Predict the 3D structure of the following.
Amino acid sequence: MKIPRQMRYIEASEPGGPGVLSLATGTVPVPKPTEVLIRVFAAGVNRPDIIQRKGTYPPPPDASPILGLEVAGEVIALGAGVSGFAPGDRVCALANGGGYAEYCVAPATQCLRWPQGYEATRAAALPETYFTVWVNIFQMGRLSEGESLLVHGGTSGIGLTAIQLAREFGSTVFATAGSREKCAAAIKYGAQAAINYREEDFAERIHDLTLSQGVDVILDIVGAPYFVRNLHCLRKDGRLIEVATMHGSKVADFDISELMRRRATITGSMMRPRTAQEKAAVALALVQRVWPVLDAGRCAPVIDRVFPLAQAADAHRYMEAGAHIGKIVLTVVA
Ligand SMILES: NC(=O)c1ccc[n+]([C@@H]2O[C@H](COP(=O)([O-])OP(=O)(O)OC[C@H]3O[C@@H](n4cnc5c(N)ncnc54)[C@H](OP(=O)(O)O)[C@@H]3O)[C@@H](O)[C@H]2O)c1
């Protein structure tokens, strides 16, 4: 296929609200020796895109300044050092940026084939949450069969991936969410119980649901206001994993002896600043452990709504309104 020199992409004219996003024309990126060039069919929208648009989550220095951390499409060119892919291959990729565009480069080691029976929209909804959930819950959090997990933000893109994967690998999952409808969805996708945090204290409910034992692992996106209550929900040797601080990051009053009593581990991580080698290792683990599960249809992305690329600003408004259940995806037709 002949590669054009120009492409349409979504430009963020300055840090700000969704209104700063608009369709623009720019140069098609050239893959580095370790990268592939992808003709993008669909791109996932993730909460980190919102934070980047606002200007408080700048892209790493070597990444595209264009928004977008995950795409699905067709490989159309290979960097000089890439093997294992050929033009025409359908891939989904964890991009380091640049996804809201007709063409996007990604390290070949962050590209995975579409699971069986997938089309572009579903494939584009996979990488960011599957890479993030795998690393945090299963690698850093060491969640294992028979253990229990509490997922905050249970119907976020991250949350529904966490619920499904944890259930698939033999854990009992509890979730929190902000409405009755969201709680029903969390249960539908595998949570044993869901707690509407607007109506109930989640720590008290976890206490009841686990017969005062607590849970083994907590995946948190709320941050400071939940920190002490999260610790109270951990059973002995429990692990608290922080992947976002949506409601604050500074904890004023924290008793270290709570940690010692529970032999608790507190950790957290960000996917984007991980090295290429680290991301490649996660991709390999996903291919081996998770892609067979997706091929078999035992876990799948939950897609709430699809917008055309040109309506990226509306997609951001929709995500910020916070009523969605699962993923929001942009469709890109080059
Ligand atoms: N560390 C990492 O590597 C990494 C990677 C990807 C994403 N993340 C983080 O993980 C979180 C989930 O990401 P996502 O892309 O799955 O996001 P998402 O689908 O937009 O979900 C965010 C959830 O947060 C809850 N929420 C709490 N306060 C909110 C507010 N003020 N406005 C809107 N929603 C609010 C909402 O659920 P309720 O209605 O139930 O409250 C919503 O479902 C985000 O904080 C994101 O930054 C971290």
